[in-house]
Design brief:
The complex is a heterodimer. By secondary structure, chain A is mainly α. Helix content of chain A is 74%, strand content 1%. Chain A has a single domain, classed as Orthogonal Bundle (ABC transporter involved in vitamin B12 uptake, BtuC), CATH 1.10.3470. Chain B contains 17 helices and 22 strands. Chain B is globular, with a radius of gyration of 24 Å. Chain B starts with 5 loop residues before the first strand and ends in a 7-residue tail after the last helix. The chains are: A mainly alpha, B alpha/beta.
Chain lengths: 317, 499
């Protein structure tokens, strides 16, 4: 009698249809849209926000928020490239970036759970700390002279498609499996939906919340390395405002800032909608100033449609 | 004055595919307290929302003071003289009593200034006139639930309402506070107001009501003077079938001691509480509001720290510093407030049932969804949880079915000591019986059950022994076949006076 628990595709049908409509519309409106060059550039451009917003999905589902991911992305990129600059192999440099993300994510998780400070405040604080430290480490100057092979992460191709596409797909699958099929993911939903009930049920709330933030940090570290690879520099000012884009992707995809709701597929759709809007505006010659306004309007539209759907659902109860 | 204030006939309301009301009929006159009864989901709230302008009817007729009426918003209904006294949630907690009374109807001076002095004066006069235990300057967040309801009542009186709707006003109140609400309702009746009063507490009907309307499955099944209908008959109308009026439980010989607490003390909450629970036993814990019963349960479950005392599980001292440790020790707490601490309302039933025992259906951290579905289906069937499927959000269920999900969670955890805190609060008669059956089954299967309840009748039906608390202390232990009077002697009287 029971079917698979969550059917994110069905629940997120509207964002998905919007994505399809947007895709078709752009294909009709611009002859340059459906070209291999353009599509792979969309993939490369959106990869950073995609990977980052996967981590944000976990955190938001668990009822949290992480405003420090933009700054974290910069620090991870800087530390990773500095390691490479100092002569370490590229893979070790990437690992350094990932570990930096894991570390800062754990710090965020530790502070919210142990000091019981609202995550909005904690991560607003760590945003400043991380960005400040990054500027101190680099003296405000970009890290350059990185081995050429590092470019493969952001710009290379594997089996005919951009290498980052594989990275994004693997991260998305892993996050999806964590969310829908593991205890950690289930507890994230429980904690986000009703933290008190989770505590009363014996869920290891403190530990698992910290884990979720740490995973979010890890994915942000990876996003930082992709960004660094695309720029071939470690930019201390990178990622400014990315946290808002990541949050927007989750929210457009049906995530609730009250926690307990959201899905990987929804977030990917959200991130892709934003990516296509931006790419489409470029192709159609719409000013980047107007692009920002359009994306802002789409966020509000998406969330109000979702609210309406939920309200109707509640009334039927 | 018209002889009928409000007359509803044939009211219908559908939400999507669900019929909430098929045939709602009700008629209230001035100076009348009209009880509106029915199980959860019978349509009481929907009917009242239609009256108060919060929902719109699909069909049917509503006469207000003799004229056809349809209120589009609560504000329109309020202007016409209909007010709903909600539970605390609809007040602005950071504002004062006076500000809440006048919220949205402040007397405005030029430039949007509010005449605060006159507002406080008027509020004070109103409070004084009715002898309400309130002060116009108090901040609402610091009031008790009863105080908050009084503010709602003041609002209604101040705005000249002639019909007041109370939705379960006493469900969160103590005995003394309930009396206070009754006194106020009687005063309102004496002043010629009409009152519609929704309640689940059958024992308070006679203290307050004049006439009664009973809804079942969205239709009015009975309406008439309260004096002409017996309580048994009312229950029959509500559930639609003959019901054993008292649930009969066969006590069994208790087995080994499963849990013992010694000298449990938490300053400001309870002192020196000692008792034990044995396998196969249902022990009642009685007492008035504020006697420290819930606090004792929370401490035994590791939610609140204790200042002194020890807990033994299976005769061995147990360290219970968190709910997690309590759960690991085999203790379960079915909390008083299932919406706040019992369930994740937005998550599926399946997630809620398995939440405390995911380990059993997962390997290496990965959940076996087939096992999860099997377990969910098993408990839905076993507890007769009325749900469309295990994927339905727990918050969509009726109160009784939510409670069953909360209980199922602990059954699946295979807990051995069950603490039930007010297990029948806010659930309908049919569901109550089913909850009792589960408790009985648990005892038969060798669990120990502690049942905290303010409904003494229910304790008398269920418990093998009844512990009584008063002002944070255990004041007595009575056999299961005792009387309400006997319990009250220990619960309410000074220890010197108790035998």
């Amino acid at each position: 009698m029971m079917q698979p628990m969550m059917q994110p595709m069905m629940q997120r049908l509207l964002p998905f249809l919007s994505l399809v409509v947007l895709f078709v519309a752009l294909a009709i409106a611009s002859p340059h849209f459906l070209t291999e060059t353009n599509l792979s550039s969309v993939v490369r451009q959106t990869a950073v926000i995609n990977v980052m917003s996967l981590g944000m999905t976990l955190i938001i589902i668990a009822g949290g928020i992480d405003l420090s991911v933009g700054a974290m992305l910069a620090m991870c990129g800087v530390l990773g490239t500095m390691a490479m600059q100092s002569g370490m192999p590229v893979t070790v440099g990437i690992l350094v970036g990932l570990l930096a993300g894991l570390f800062w994510g754990s710090v965020n998780g530790f502070l919210t759970t142990r000091l019981r400070i609202a995550p909005f405040i904690v991560t607003l604080g760590t945003l400043g700390i991380i960005r400040g430290l990054t500027l101190i480490i680099t003296n405000g100057l970009p890290v350059t002279q990185i081995p050429h092979s590092f470019a493969f992460l952001g710009e290379g191709n594997l089996l005919g498609v951009p290498f980052v596409l594989w990275v994004v797909v693997i991260c998305a699958l892993a996050t999806h499996v964590i969310l829908e099929h593991t205890r950690l993911g289930r507890y994230a939903f429980a904690i986000g939906s009703n933290p008190d009930a989770a505590v009363y049920a014996g869920v290891p709330v403190t530990f698992d919340t910290t884990m979720i933030y740490a995973l979010g940090g890890l994915l942000t570290g990876l996003a930082g390395m992709i960004e660094a690879s695309r720029l071939m520099t470690g930019q201390p000012s990178a990622g400014n405002g990315y946290e808002l884009q990541a949050i927007a992707a989750v929210v457009i995809g049906g995530g609730s800032l009250h926690g307990g709701e959201g899905s990987v597929i929804g977030t990917l759709i959200g991130a892709l909608i934003m990516g296509l809007l931006s790419n489409g505006s470029d192709l159609l010659g719409i000013s980047p100033y107007l692009q920002q306004a359009i994306i802002g309007a789409v966020i509000i539209l998406a969330v109000s449609v979702d609210e309406l759907r939920k309200r109707r659902g509640r009334a039927e109860a | 004055m018209p002889s009928v204030l409000l007359d509803l006939s044939g009211i219908q309301k559908r939400y999507g595919g669900v019929t909430a009301l098929r045939d709602g009929n009700l008629s209230v006159g001035p100076g009348e307290v009209h009880l509106l009864l029915g199980e959860n989901g019978a349509g009481k709230s929907t009917l009242m929302k239609i009256v108060a302008g919060m929902e719109h009817r699909d069909a049917g007729r509503m006469l207000w003071q003799g004229r056809e009426a349809a209120f589009r918003t609560p504000a329109e209904a309020a202007t016409a003289g209909i007010a709903m006294v909600h539970q605390e949630s609809l007040l602005a907690p950071h504002l004062t009593v006076a500000e809440n009374i006048f919220l949205g109807r402040e007397e405005r001076l030029p430039f949007g200034w509010v005449n605060r002095r006159r507002m406080v004066e008027q509020a004070s006069r109103l409070i004084e006139e009715h002898h309400f235990p309130l002060d116009a300057g108090w901040r609402v967040e610091r009031l008790s639930p009863a105080g908050k309801q009084l503010v709602g009542i003041c609002r209604a009186i101040q705005h000249g309402s002639s019909l007041l709707i109370f939705d379960e006003p006493t469900s969160s109140l103590s005995g003394a506070e309930t009396e206070e609400v009754f006194r106020i309702v009687r005063t309102l009746r004496a002043r010629g107001m009409g009152v519609i009063y929704i309640t689940h507490r059958l024992e308070e009907l006679r203290a307050i009501g004049d006439r009664v309307t009973i809804l079942r499955d969205g239709a009015t099944v009975h309406s008439g003077p309260l004096a002409e209908v017996s309580t048994d008959r009312i229950i029959q109308h509500m559930v639609g079938r003959e019901m054993v009026s008292i649930y009969q439980r066969q006590p069994l010989a208790p087995g080994a001691e499963l849990l013992r607490v010694e000298g449990l003390t938490r300053r400001g909450a309870f002192r020196d509480v000692s008792f034990s629970l044995r396998a196969g036993e249902i022990v009642g814990l009685a007492g008035l509001m504020g006697a420290g019963r819930t606090e004792t349960c929370l401490a035994m479950f590791g939610v609140d720290p204790v200042d002194a005392g020890r807990v033994f599980v299976d005769g061995r001292p147990a360290r219970i510093g968190s709910p997690r440790e309590a759960v690991a020790a085999g203790i379960a707490l079915v909390t008083e407030d299932r919406q706040k601490t019992g369930l994740a309302l937005r998550l599926p039933i399946a997630y809620n049932i398995t939440m405390a025992n995911l380990r059993e259906i997962s390997r290496l951290g990965v959940i076996d969804s087939r096992a999860q579905n099997r377990v969910t289906a098993e408990y839905i069937a076993r507890l007769r949880i009325r749900a469309s499927s295990g994927r339905q959000a727990a918050g969509r269920l009726s109160g009784g079915n939510q409670q069953k999900v909360a209980i199922a969670k602990w059954l699946f955890r295979r807990a051995r000591v069950f603490l039930f805190d007010e297990p029948t609060r806010g659930i309908d008669v049919g569901a109550k019986i089913e909850v009792f059956e589960v408790m009985d089954e648990l005892a038969r299967a060798g669990a120990a059950v502690l049942m905290v309840s303010s409904e003494m009748q229910e304790l008398l039906q269920m418990a093998d022994r009844i512990l009584v608390m008063r002002q944070g202390r255990l004041t007595g232990e009575l056999p299961g076949r005792t009387t309400q009077e006997e319990i009250m002697r220990f619960a309410a009287l000074e220890p010197e006076c108790a035998p």
